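Our preliminary data section would be incomplete without showing what the modeling component actually yields. Below, a chain of 725 amino acids is followed by its predicted structure, encoded as tokens that our downstream tools consume directly.
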Amino acid sequence: MQYLPVGRAVQEYWLDAWQRSILFLDVLRQRGDIAREHNARLAPNVLSFTPELITDGRTLKRPVNYALVRIVPPAGTVIDPNKRPFIVVDPRAGHGPGIGGMKHDSEIGVALQAGHPCYFVGFLPNPQPGQTIEDVCMAEALFVETVAARHPEAEGKPVVIGNCQAGWQIMIMAAMRPDLCGPIMLAGSPLSYWAGVHGKNPMRYLGGLLGGTWLTALMGDLGHGIFDGAHLIGNFESMNPANTYWQKPYNVYSHVDTEAERFLEFETWWGSPVLLTAGEMQWIADNLFVGNRLAPGGLRASDGTRIDLRNIRSPIVVFCSRGDDITPPQQALGWITDLYDEDSEIVANGQTIVYTMHQSIGHLGIFVSGKVATREHAEFATCMDMIDLMPPGLYEAVITEVDENTANPDLINGRYLFRLEARSLADIHALGGNDAADDLRFAAAARVSDINLGLYRTLLQPAVRAMTTEQTAEALRKLHPNRVRFAMFSDENPFMRPVKALAETARATRQPVSDDNPLLTMERAASDWITTWLNAVGKARDTLTEKVFLTTYGSPLVQALLGLGTDQPLAGRHIEHDLLREVTIAKRRAELEGRFEKGGIADALARALVYIRIPERSADERGFTVLQAIRDSRPPGERLSQPALKQVLADQFLLIEFDAERAIQALPLLLANEPELRAAALAALHRMIKASGQLSDEGKRRLARVETLFGSPKASKPPAETSHV
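Predicted structure:
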């Protein structure tokens, strides 16, 4: 009798294991069938919103396989025509479109909830013949123009969100057409491709270990001029063998009663590779992944114009994560230190750069996670106008939960307080990155890549192209492991057809094992051991990868053979000085020199606000809420437009930066023309200052001085304000 409980435990476990196995196979069968049906559609995507086609990129003068669609607001969603539109651009990095709107809690979802018109830029599975990256960027510029033209009443240019690969495309577009965009948000987007830290980020070494981009050219030739996005998906999956080969499938098997729907939803996107032209992929590999030519200004458009990210006039928002192993923070933010050597250069160039860093979320979680959408993306959606008004400089967005100690919670939208804190280039450097020796190693790898690519094109490419046909290319695509693993478990495989009926029986008679079953405990322990072992294998592989790369390309002999040396500067590592840009900045400063004593009440109010807030080194949405309320209280014909208000704040900030003492002493001159508005302006200033809580001692001293200059030696209760903001 003492063995009976053991017998029952064994019987219970094996019945459950058998049923889970059948149900797991059925999930894989459904995955294969869904993928086959999904990929057979003309425009497959995983959007959970209704799209309405606006512009088909295939009809453009330079056709591309991209399209602009309007997102139809769900029932009950109220869109404010005065709010700037949002455009979400999906990454074409091997997978199909829709990741930015796969869930209702998503980038698209939070923008709609905030009342913004929303648009989506996606793509078809097959590229147009001969399309280039520049063609795509110019098509995206046309899409932004189209959206802006559809919303002439909106107070602000469209917000453009670029996910992952789409981020660098948007930056190239904005550098070539700096007049188009409102704030640009880069979510998990790499821009500095060599950057990283030792012991992490092994993906950046891959190009060097493979001998450069000649393999990219080979894959394009074997594809008969087409590069299969499944190769990119395979690279992503190889990064985490524990998750790819065990954790993900075991999680579905062990929770098959609850995880199937979520798994199938994600795999529909993950298992739908798209195609690129061989020329597009070669350009990406040569100029970005291995060449790292974007941030240092080494790229040129077809007309010879240099693509300089310093040309971008829009605020740039970078959302990255320490848990992202595909786009680590160094690659998401390193472009800033590639462009600028001093903090003053950012201000002088007029760029506003905001970044925020999640502590743990992975790469895909930046776009997919509902928690991220309802916190970070929701806050950015509601605070983009605030970001657009910020003076030039580098800021970090800090998002904190509202609690009982938060001042003026009625001025905060939702559960979180959005705050921008001033940062410096030292904060970016503190994240870690390459030293001079590392940069020399990557430069050596880039040069080896150029040599090997030249040898391939001379010696092998003619023969490869001669023996490749469209039929052989299509056969290779169908036989790619990423597609085979879907097809082999689908109903295309006759051995899988009985699984559906078996699964229905298993569901009808389902008897889950009890959580305290000892055999289930053993199963979980075995799973943990397998995960640990695969993680160890992956870590050992990554360590070896790094050591081989550092040793090979760090060899003085290899570097000497490649014409590199430690005694010579690396061309193209940092962007070069631009004489025309420096002349333009000097001219701008000279223009501002004559504006210290010029302006009206709005200029005086903005100057005083900037002067008082600078020592605080932060601004939050409470002050912005008050500023907007004061502005909205004016009749429409008298209030400053959003662009005009932005210009006023930027000009007054620069005047304070150039010569704070002279700027403040000139305040009475700005107030002299409208003496009757002094009290009202001071009242408005008090409201904006007090919205964010207590000032520092220096801030209080500055406020007292401003009160004196406004004609109020001692702060008294001001009258109800009316301002010209």
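Confidence is low (pLDDT under 50) at residues 713-724. The radius of gyration is 29 Å. Preliminary results of this kind motivate Aim 1 of the renewal.
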